[in-house]
C-alpha cells in the first residue's frame, strides 16, 4: 500500500486532507522530481545489451512503435517503477499487436501512476501524437464536471437510439490492471463497492461480482450493452489485464440501469451513464453527479482518484488520459454514412465512428456509434458540447439528404480551446 | 532485478489477499496448490527471477479444458523445477502416474531397440510421427525469456541445423520472413506450429513478441522438422506418410544426436537430469518429452463403448488431427503414447507400435461385424 503522503499528493481538494498528515512528510512528497522518481525506482538487471533486446518493429504501426527508437529503448530498458513495472511490460502489447485495421492503436500501457513519470521519455511523445500535439511537460489539462453549462443536448429520437457517457477512474496507491497483484485488484474492488454502497436516490443500486454471476445474467448484461466483454481482444490480453479473470471483477449498476460502474476491466473503474433515446443532457447530468458523489464517498475513507494537473485523470491506456471521457450515441445514418464526405465531416467535427459492439468492431447496417475523438486538453463539459453540436449537425445532414438536398463539410473545429 | 522487486512488493500483501480463487478450477496445479504451499513458495524466485505466480498464471487463467486435464503450470527456467519443487513434485506425480521425487528416469534413444514398427497397415494408418522437445542449457524458457535470449536460442539452433547433411539437409524459415501463403501451407501440411491462439499458451507468456525469433527448419524431404521457440526452445519432429514408424523413429534418434553435438560444442547442451530426464517448459513433457503417434482411421472402434478403456490399458491417448486442443474429424484420430516420464523413448514408441497394431486388428474385426471382447488387452 502506498504511503500516506503519496496518496494525497497533488489532490485538488486538499484543505481538509492536509490536516490528516504532518507538514514534514507532505513536503517530501510534493517535491519529488521526475529524476527522483526514476532513480527511486528499481533497477532492472539485464543479461543482454539493449540492442539484443530491442523489439523488431519494422512491420508495426502503432504510436509506441513510431516513437521507440533503439536509443530510447537503451535509455529506459533498465528502469522500473518503485513497484517493479518495466519498459518491456509497458510496451509488450504494442510489440505483440503490430497494427489494428480500424484504428491506430497506442501500443503501450501504464502499470501504475509512476509509469508516466519513469517512462516519460516514451509516454510524452506518444501522448503528443495521440492527443493532437498535447505537450504533457508544459500544458495543463482542464477538468470541468459542471453539467449545467451544457447547451441543448436533446437529440431527435428518430435518429438517435441511445446516449452514453463513460470515463475511467483509478484509485491512487494501487497498481493498474496490467501490473496489479490479486491483492491489489481485490483492494480496488473493496474500496469501490464500499463507496458505491453509499449512493442514494435514483443512483442507489447493487454490485454483481463476475465470479458469482450466472452465465445467463452475464449474457443478458452483455446484450444490454451493460457489461464488459470477456477479454478476448489481444490488445488487452497481451498487456496482462486479463490475468486471474474473473477474480475481483464485477459490475455495479443503479436500479434503473442508467448508471453503471465496471470494476477491474481495462481500468480500476469505468463509470458509465446511459439511457435509450437522445437525452444526452440528462445522461451527462447524471454522469457528473454520480462521479462527484463516488469521489466524495471514496475520500471519506481516505482514498482518492489518480489525477495530476498535466495529465488529468490517470488511466491505464494513454489514450484515455485527461478526461478519459467518451460521450456518444448510437445513431442511424443510412444516407450520410454512404456519402463519401462522411469521414471528413466526422473528422472536422472531432468525432469518431465505431461499430455498435465497441472499439474493436465494425458497424452493422447503418447504425453507428459516434463519439468524441479527443480526451486530453479539453474539459468534460467542452467535449460533451462538441458531441452534442456534432451529432446535431450529422442529423441535419441526414435530414437534408432525405429531402434530396446537398450537405456541406463543416469547417474544422479547433482543439485545445 | 525486476521480477524480484515486484515480488518483494507483492510480499506486503497477506497470503489470504494474494491466494488465487481456484474454486472453479480443474487442472493439476489447482489440485496440488494449497495455502501452505503458496505461503512457503511465494517469497522465492529462481536466479533469473521467475516466481510462483509466474509458474501458476496459466492455471489460474484457464480453469479447465473440455478435452484434456491440463497441467496448469509451467517452468520459466531449469531451476524452476528445484525452487518450486513443493508444488511441481505433486503436479508431476499426479500427471505422471505417481512418479516420486526419488525416482530415476531412463533415457534410451537407440532406435535399434525398437521391435517391429515398420509395417503398420497403410490402409488405416495415414501418417506416422514422433516429436520431442529440447531445451538449451543456460537459457531461460519461453514463458520467461527476453527477446535477446530468444534470438540467441534461434541463432544457435540455426547453426546446429544448417550443419546437418545427408537426409537431414534442409533450410531454416524464420517466421518473420515467411509469406502468409507459405505459412498457411505449412500449417495445412501439419508441419508448422499454430499461431498462438490457445489461451493455455497465451496466459503463460510464451507468445510474447511473436513472431520474433520463431521459425521452422525442415529437410528437403519434409520428413525431419525442427520448430524453434514455440512452446519450447526446440521441438524436433520426424514424420512421414504411411505406417513405417521404425523408419520415423530411426531418423528421429539420429537427427537428435547430430544436433545435440553442435549445441554441446557451444556449452549449451540439452537440459537434462537423471530424475526428470529432459527438462521442458510444461511438466507434462518431462522425461522423454516424446509423443509418438499416428493418424489412423478407426471409425468403428472409436464409437465402441470400450474405446476409452482400451486406450487407457494400452497407455495411449487420442486427439483430433489438428493437435492437442482439437476434436477428431471423420473417424480419423491422432493416437499417441500417454506417458512421458518414467519410461524410455524406445519403450514409449514400442507401446504405440504394438497398441496401434492391435487396434487395427480390432477395427478389422468390427468391420466384419465380429466382436472384439476377447481382444481387450490387459493394463500395460
TrEMBL record, chain A:
Residue ranges occupied by any Phosphagen kinase N-terminal domain in the UniProt entry: 46-132
Residues binding ATP: 162-166, 225, 270, 326-330, 354-359
UniProt membrane topology term: Peripheral membrane protein
Pfam family, one: ATP-gua_Ptrans
Principal cellular location given in the protein's record: mitochondrion
Enzyme class, UniProt record, top EC level: transferase
Function: Reversibly catalyzes the transfer of phosphate between ATP and various phosphogens (e.g. creatine phosphate). Creatine kinase isoenzymes play a central role in energy transduction in tissues with large, fluctuating energy demands, such as skeletal muscle, heart, brain and spermatozoa.
Protein name: Creatine kinase U-type, mitochondrial
Species whose genome carries this gene: Electrophorus electricus (Electric eel)
UniProtKB/TrEMBL annotation, chain B:
CDD domains with a match to the protein in the record: creatine_kinase_like
Domain Phosphagen kinase C-terminal: 124-366
InterPro entries in the cross-refs: ATP-guanido_PTrfase (IPR000749), ATP-guanido_PTrfase_AS (IPR022415), ATP-guanido_PTrfase_cat (IPR022414), ATP-guanido_PTrfase_N (IPR022413), ATP-guanido_PTrfase_N_sf (IPR036802), Gln_synth/guanido_kin_cat_dom (IPR014746)
GO annotation terms (biological process): phosphocreatine biosynthetic process
Molecular-function GO terms, alphabetical: ATP binding; creatine kinase activity
Record-linked Pfam families: ATP-gua_Ptrans (PF00217), ATP-gua_PtransN (PF02807)
One GO term describing the cellular component: extracellular space
SUPFAM superfamilies on file: Glutamine synthetase/guanido kinase, Guanido kinase N-terminal domain
Annotated ATP binding sites: 127-131, 190, 235, 291-295, 319-324
Domain Phosphagen kinase N-terminal: 10-97
Swiss-Prot/TrEMBL keywords: ATP-binding, Kinase, Nucleotide-binding, Transferase
Enzyme Commission no: 2.7.3.2
Superkingdom in the source lineage: Eukaryota
Family: Belongs to the ATP:guanido phosphotransferase family.
PANTHER family: ARGININE OR CREATINE KINASE (PTHR11547), CREATINE KINASE (PTHR11547:SF60)
Protein name per its UniProtKB record: creatine kinase
Gene name of the encoded protein: ckmb
Amino acid at each position: 500500500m502506498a504511503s500516506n503522503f503519496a496518496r494525497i499528493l497533488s489532490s485538488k481538494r486538499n484543505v481538509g486532507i492536509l490536516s490528516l498528515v504532518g507538514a514534514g512528510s507532505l513536503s517530501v512528497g510534493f517535491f519529488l522530481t521526475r529524476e527522483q522518481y526514476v532513480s527511486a525506482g528499481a533497477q532492472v538487471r539485464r543479461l543482454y545489451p539493449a540492442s539484443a533486446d530491442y523489439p523488431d518493429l519494422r512491420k508495426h504501426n502503432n504510436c509506441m512503435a513510431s516513437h521507440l527508437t533503439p536509443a530510447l529503448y537503451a535509455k529506459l530498458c533498465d528502469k522500473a517503477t518503485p513497484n517493479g513495472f518495466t519498459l518491456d511490460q509497458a510496451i509488450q502489447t504494442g510489440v505483440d499487436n503490430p497494427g489494428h485495421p480500424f484504428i491506430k492503436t497506442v501500443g503501450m500501457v501504464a502499470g501504475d501512476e509512476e509509469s508516466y513519470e519513469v517512462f516519460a521519455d516514451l509516454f510524452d511523445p506518444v501522448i503528443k501524437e495521440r492527443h493532437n500535439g498535447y505537450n504533457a511537460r508544459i500544458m495543463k489539462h482542464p477538468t470541468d464536471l459542471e453539467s449545467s453549462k451544457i447547451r441543448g443536448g436533446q437529440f431527435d429520437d428518430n435518429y438517435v437510439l441511445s446516449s452514453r457517457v463513460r470515463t475511467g477512474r483509478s484509485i491512487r496507491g494501487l497498481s493498474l490492471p496490467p501490473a496489479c497483484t490479486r491483492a491489489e485488484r481485490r483492494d480496488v474492488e473493496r474500496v469501490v463497492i464500499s463507496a458505491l454502497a453509499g449512493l442514494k436516490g435514483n443512483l442507489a443500486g447493487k454490485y454483481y461480482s463476475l465470479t458469482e454471476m450466472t452465465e445467463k445474467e452475464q449474457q443478458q448484461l452483455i446484450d444490454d450493452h451493460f457489461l464488459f466483454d470477456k477479454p478476448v481482444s489481444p490488445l488487452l490480453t497481451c498487456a496482462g489485464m486479463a490475468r486471474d479473470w474473473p477474480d475481483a471483477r464485477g459490475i455495479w449498476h443503479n436500479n434503473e440501469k442508467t448508471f453503471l460502474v465496471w470494476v477491474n476491466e481495462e481500468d480500476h473503474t469505468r463509470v458509465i451513464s446511459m439511457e435509450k433515446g437522445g437525452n444526452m443532457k440528462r445522461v451527462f447530468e447524471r454522469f457528473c453527479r454520480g462521479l462527484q458523489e463516488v469521489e466524495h464517498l471514496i475520500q471519506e475513507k481516505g482514498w482518492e482518484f489518480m489525477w495530476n494537473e498535466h495529465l488529468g485523470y490517470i488511466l491505464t491506456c494513454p489514450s484515455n488520459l485527461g478526461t478519459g471521457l467518451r460521450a456518444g450515441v448510437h445513431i442511424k445514418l443510412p444516407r450520410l454514412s454512404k456519402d463519401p464526405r462522411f469521414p471528413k465531416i466526422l473528422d472536422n467535427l472531432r468525432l469518431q465512428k465505431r461499430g455498435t459492439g465497441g472499439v474493436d468492431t465494425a458497424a452493422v447496417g447503418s447504425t453507428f456509434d459516434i463519439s468524441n475523438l479527443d480526451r486530453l486538453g479539453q474539459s468534460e463539459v467542452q467535449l460533451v458540447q462538441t458531441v452534442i453540436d456534432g451529432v446535431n449537425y450529422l442529423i441535419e445532414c441526414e435530414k437534408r439528404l432525405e429531402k434530396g438536398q446537398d450537405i456541406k463539410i463543416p469547417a474544422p473545429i479547433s482543439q485545445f480551446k | 532485478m525486476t521480477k524480484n522487486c515486484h515480488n518483494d512488493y507483492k510480499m506486503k500483501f497477506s497470503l489470504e489477499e494474494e491466494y488465487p480463487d481456484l474454486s472453479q478450477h480443474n487442472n493439476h496445479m489447482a489440485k496440488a496448490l494449497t495455502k501452505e504451499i503458496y505461503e512457503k513458495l511465494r517469497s522465492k524466485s529462481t536466479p533469473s527471477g521467475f516466481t510462483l505466480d509466474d509458474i501458476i498464471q496459466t492455471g489460474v487463467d484457464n480453469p479447465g479444458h473440455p478435452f484434456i486435464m491440463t497441467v496448469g503450470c509451467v517452468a520459466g527456467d531449469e531451476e524452476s523445477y528445484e525452487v518450486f519443487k513443493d508444488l511441481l513434485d505433486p503436479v508431476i506425480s499426479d500427471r505422471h502416474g505417481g512418479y516420486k521425487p526419488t525416482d530415476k528416469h531412463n533415457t534410451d534413444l537407440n532406435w535399434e531397440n525398437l521391435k517391429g514398427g515398420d509395417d503398420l497397415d497403410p490402409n488405416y494408418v495415414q501418417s506416422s510421427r514422433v516429436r520431442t522437445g529440447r531445451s538449451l542449457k543456460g537459457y531461460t524458457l519461453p514463458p520467461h525469456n527476453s527477446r535477446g535470449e530468444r534470438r540467441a536460442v534461434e541463432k544457435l539452433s540455426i547453426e546446429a541445423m544448417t550443419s546437418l547433411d545427408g537426409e537431414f539437409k534442409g533450410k531454416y524459415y524464420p517466421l518473420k520472413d515467411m509469406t502468409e501463403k507459405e505459412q498457411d501451407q505449412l500449417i495445412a501440411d501439419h508441419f508448422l506450429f499454430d499461431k498462438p491462439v490457445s489461451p493455455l499458451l497465451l496466459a503463460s507468456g510464451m507468445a510474447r513478441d511473436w513472431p520474433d525469433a520463431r521459425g521452422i527448419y525442415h529437410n528437403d524431404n519434409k520428413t525431419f522438422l525442427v520448430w524453434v521457440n514455440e512452446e519450447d526452445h526446440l521441438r524436433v519432429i520426424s514424420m512421414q506418410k504411411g505406417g513405417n514408424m521404425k523408419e520415423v523413429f530411426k531418423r528421429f534418434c539420429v537427427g537428435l544426436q547430430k544436433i545435440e553435438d553442435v549445441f554441446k560444442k557451444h556449452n549449451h547442451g540439452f537440459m537434462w537430469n537423471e530424475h526428470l530426464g529432459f527438462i521442458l517448459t510444461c511438466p507434462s513433457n518431462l522425461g522423454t518429452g516424446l509423443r509418438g503417434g499416428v493418424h489412423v482411421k478407426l471409425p468403428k472402434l472409436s464409437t465402441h463403448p470400450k474405446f476409452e478403456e482400451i486406450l487407457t490399458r494400452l497407455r495411449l491417448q487420442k486427439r483430433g488431427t489438428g493437435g492437442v486442443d482439437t476434436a477428431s474429424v471423420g473417424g480419423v484420430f491422432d493416437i499417441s503414447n500417454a506417458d512421458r516420464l518414467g519410461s524410455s523413448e524406445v519403450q514409449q514408441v514400442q507401446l504405440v507400435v504394438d497398441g496401434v497394431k492391435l487396434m487395427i486388428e480390432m477395427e478389422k474385426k468390427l468391420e466384419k461385424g465380429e466382436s472384439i471382447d476377447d481382444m481387450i488387452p490387459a493394463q500395460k
